[in-house]
User: Fold these one by one.
Assistant:
Number 1:
Amino acid sequence: MASAPDPSKASHDRRWPRWVYGVGEEPDARFTLANERTFLAWIRTGLGFVAAGMAMGALAGYAGLSHPRVTIASLLLVGGGVLAGIIAFVRWMMQERAMRLNRPLTSSTALPLFTVLLVVVAVLGLTLFI
């Protein structure tokens, strides 16, 4: 059962977001830190997507290759990178809250999404050479 935040601790605990930190019990620090490392891995993945999309667009412009497929692939990568950052934060909050409330962790629907994204970008890239 979810417990209300302890009013005596509320004035000392200024962590944000309150809807995550203001419920349940403090989980084992190892799990919280693992959750943060997973968040940072998603951020790195998103940054890689953004960098790849921008590099693809820049190199195509430099090479004089203005093809709609390059633009679409670049936009998909940059958009996927932004989406990865948003998903990272939402998933971090959901997992941290679940740990605090002693509930099962949620599964990730983002993994198939990013798999499809990479396959689409790879197919667009391959069709440029065929």
Note: Helices lie at 7-10, 18-21, 29-62, 68-100, 110-129.
Number 2:
Amino acid sequence: MIPIDLATIWAFIIAFAVFVYVVMDGFDLGLGILFPLFPKKHDRDVIMNSVAPVWDGNETWLVLGGGGLMAAFPLAYAVLMPALYTPMIIMLLGLVFRGVAFEFRWRTQRERNLWDIAFAGGSILATLAQGIALGAILQGVQVTGRQYGGGWWDWLTPFSILTGVALVIGYALLGATWLVMKTEGELRDRAYHLSWVLLLAMLGAIAAVSIATPFLAVQYTQRWFAWPNIILTAPVPIAVAGVTVLLLRSLANKYDYQPFFLTLALFALSYAGLGISMYPYIVPQSITIWQAASPENSQLFMLFGVSILIPLILGYTAWAYWVFRGKVNTESGYH
């Protein structure tokens, strides 16, 4: 009988939850990032209406990922949270401002510009903080014994700033391709133009992060370039190149639906590359998933819960997107 590796199963569950959050919340954060580029009230109303039915359920996956990390890998949670207090607080404040602004901008005329600024600013802050936190984890966290051993500002480095800016560009591209898929007319044409610019910027960001990552630790270099690992890792950059060609073609031919899903494919490949670099460490170069895992009885008990919870969340989320599929009706409003 093949033994069940609960730690690996839970690592994939948490990775899945975080990726679904990136997919679900990435494009509406991207819309907030792009908000200042659409100064017309009508365009901003349409942008908001394009995500109004689905935006507030996306943070479910962030809660699932964070809660799962705390329950399944408590040691990793205890080490990573003190290391990332500042970017996490900034992220949560950004999400709060964005959420409040989303609701309040429809309730007022006089202060609407202030809420628009809060919506855009909150989206940019939340995205930048997420990217910085990712970079801080990837570059490694100082561990002393079984606790965080670094300083308050260790998360702030050139590499973490690079990953933060890269995520802002990536989410903006998701937002632009979402508008291509959901809108019509002049707004759609403007989104196509932005998609070209942001795609080139994202490819540059992916290249910059990919070049910088092997210099962070010798383990990353060996994982990607040592023989025979390169046989297994080479398909990732090849697939990125292939998806990029398809994405460029879809933008050139103005296929409304393909750019968004191909951009999601780029995110998936980048996420796979991150997983290849980190596995089996949950705190890179310091703590593996097995060292950080909670007792097997606890993991097994929680596994029964998520086996019901995740399909349920996926089901009602898919239903919501299906019901509100198609182009946005510019005459409709969010109330």
Note: The mean pLDDT is 85.
Number 3:
Amino acid sequence: MRWMVAAAAALVMAAGALGGARQQAAPARAQEAAYVVTEGNLFLPGTITVAAGTAVVWVNQEPDPANSHNVFSYQRLFESPDFYPGESWSMLFDTPGTYTYYCAYHEGMEGTVIVQ
């Protein structure tokens, strides 16, 4: 029960974000979750297509414990804090559209979320 209250609080706090994407620390009550991993300073997969209402979770799987990543929207709709190997960050996408993003630390590390 306590986790449900925490999840609901996360959704309420996330509702203030811009556009059709809501920032959150972990996927709360999304319809589904889709995963993007960071490996070799790449987002894998580079393009992911999800249904509206899906939380996309970025998971840092780099072997170097100092290799952090972040996720910044080119459209300036969201930005994550740094997340280190073994950590993750998620975003709930509830409006159809194409969302492009990049890691501020690694040139060429880019990805796209297509929401249908």
Note: The CA atoms of residues 48 and 82 lie 21 Å apart.
